[in-house]
Specification:
8 helices; two-stranded antiparallel sheet; alpha/beta; Rossmann fold; binds adenosine monophosphate; globular; 7 strands; about 220 residues; single chain
Length: about 220
């Protein structure tokens, strides 16, 4: 049975970093709803404009649209042997739709919470930078690039600072997480449906736990 690896955690917890490592090492596609929405950046449609405004406010894109995009994306051929979800589900309605989708696809869900204390998250997000070429994630405080503001592997490209990683939007995103996603996390935890890893460590140390959970070995 193919696995759907669901990475959960607050914004800035390191879901994207772990999803990239899993993708590289397990060869499964990483599906990030945030990336899908960010890809609409240059689209000149009313819907794209609405999504951009929601993201700038640090709120969630409506469930109906989000669920539809995930369904479409996971129906593609490259998802046949499983896939990694980064940033979905974020609401109870999305979680219910994922359960249905997994049943229809004949997949099992492995949900992993990357746990990071609230006070560490803000700095992680405001310091975050991405390479526009390879997507490598840097952090000006914790993992700076070797040279000022350019990727170690692609020095021709300036690193990108996500427009929703400014202090104001970051605070709104953390509040949105507390209000809308935290109850879902608590539900998964209390139902014994989710494993938790300590997300305050180095990415490789976190990855070891994540990989052990994914391969079905008890990591506790
Ligand atoms: P992320 O890159 O996961 O931090 O997502 C960036 C932004 O995209 C979020 O702040 C939301 O506005 C939107 N977004 C991403 N995933 C979802 C989701 N599952 N449901 C609703 N909105 C989402």
């Amino acid at each position: 049975m193919a696995k759907i690896i669901v990475l959960m955690g607050a914004p800035g917890a390191g879901k994207g970093t772990q999803a990239r490592l899993l993708q590289e090492r397990l060869g499964l596609p990483q599906i990030s709803t945030g990336d899908i929405f960010r890809a609409l950046k240059h689209a000149q449609t009313p819907l794209a404009q609405e999504v951009r405004e929601i993201m700038e406010r640090g709120q969630l894109v409506p469930d109906e649209l989000t669920i539809r995009l995930v369904k479409e994306r996971t129906a593609r051929e490259d998802c046949r042997n499983g896939y990694i979800l980064d940033g979905f589900p974020r609401t109870p309605a999305q979680a219910a739709s994922l359960e249905k989708l997994a049943a229809e696809q004949g997949n099992t869900i492995v949900a992993i919470l990357i746990d990071v204390p609230h006070e560490m998250l803000e700095k992680r997000m405001t310091g975050r930078r991405n390479c526009p070429v390879c997507g490598e994630i840097y952090n000006m405080y914790f993992k700076p690039p070797r040279n000022d503001n350019v990727c170690d592997l692609h020095p021709e490209a300036e690193l990108v600072h996500r427009s929703d990683d400014n202090s104001e939007t970051v605070r709104a995103r953390l509040a949105t997480y507390e209000e809308q996603t935290r109850p879902l996390v608590e539900y998964y935890k209390s139902a014994g449906l989710m494993r938790t890893v300590d997300g305050t460590r180095e990415p490789e140390a976190i990855y070891k736990d994540v990989a052990r959970i994914v391969s079905g070995v008890n990591a506790d």
